[in-house]
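Troubleshooting log. The previous run stalled partway through. Resubmitting the same two chains, unchanged.
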Amino acid sequence: MFSPVVDELISQLTRLPGVGTRTAQRLAFHLLRVPKEDALALADAIRAAKERVGFCRECGNLTEEEVCRVCADPRRDHTVVCVVEQPADVLSLERTHEYRGVYHVLGGALSPLDGVEPEHLRIAALLRRVERDGVAEVVLATNPTMTGEATAGFIAERLRGRTRVTRLASGLPVGSDLEYADEVTLGRALSGRREMA
Amino acid sequence: MGSRAQQAEAVVLRSLRFGEADRILHLFTKELGRVGAIAKGARKTRSRFGARLEPFSHVEIQLHVGRGELATVTGVDLVRSHQALAADPYRLAVGSIGLEAVLKLFIDHDPSPRAFHALVRFLDLLDDGGQPDPSGPDPALDPLALSLQLKLLWLAGYLPHLSSCAACGREGPLTAFSARAGGAVCAACGEGALPASAAAFLGMRALLEQPLAGARPAGLGASARRETLAIVEAVYAEHGGFRLRTLARR
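Second attempt completed without errors. Output:
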């Protein structure tokens, strides 16, 4: 409609998640309007990331090396492995400064309706890792969604008797009021209540 | 058509991540049939919707229906979460077959209150967990899943004819199933049809006639259930042109 090159740019942007045709057009026009070096800096960043960033051999997290910083850090506790769905979840847990173990990124969650089965996730690699490294505890930190819970249940079943398996607690957000809590979250907070000394 | 607020009783069939913190939902409602909706901010920890809008949830939902393809969720009250299904891979797999069958067999904005009630009853029975299938670990052969699928085929207008030959009308003996002919066929009309036993046809009729709660106690043999599943899949392929992903692993 505009020119074959602009149409191709819009078409490529439309392939990004959550980007429709209108948004793609807006982004394309923005890129054409900004100084050339700004637009090319974006192109260079995409190229560099695709060429240099891969998956950690140990945990599946994003890294520029063969092994990511967390797995390569000798100060981390390598006998505790926290299992997450996506690399973004590692960042969220690292922001807590509470966790000193290492991670294992599954690459998604089991979802029969979407055709995501165990062999599509890094579950076999996790089981091998637990055996090989003598892991003392696996913390299941998949999302508290139907697919995340199903994935946690599946992994817990396969690790039964091999190591200690724990699940991230579910409950109320800090700073919120009970009266605004939904019944599912509040129910879980109640069933997972802990004793105070 | 102007925009309007709509209250509906719904089961969440599917939930997909969308944008920064939203979810796109496939809902099966009693009043509106299948509906697509967006739940804005549902993935945020402080969302009041998020926990109530997981797949299998039975909810009372308030929607804002505008001119767009998707309605917007404005309020949700939980009727039953059916959360126990996520803790048991077998029940999760059986439940997923039910959700996908509804997703594929019913179109948007074509209400079927009977199909809605069947789905809710199916999920309640699964959630209660009673009467586990004694026959084996294959969720696709669970009588409850087969019974629901046969009832849904009936409600969607694809019920196979089982009492006489669907091709020539002869009363029997019926030896095969032809999805193209629309039901059981006799030996003379059975060329190219799926071989099926009398036990399978009897079993299918029992699953259709009995309520969902009677599906497991009906005691269908493993072989009859395998034949029933093959027939259900043949009907999906012939009349709907699809195959269920949740059955595809077999």
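Takeaways: The first helix of chain B runs from residue 89 to 105. Chain B touches chain A at residues 14-15, 18-20, 45-46, 48-52, 54-56, 78, 81, 83, 85-89, 92-93, 96, 99-100, 103, 245-246, 248-249 (CB under 8 Å).
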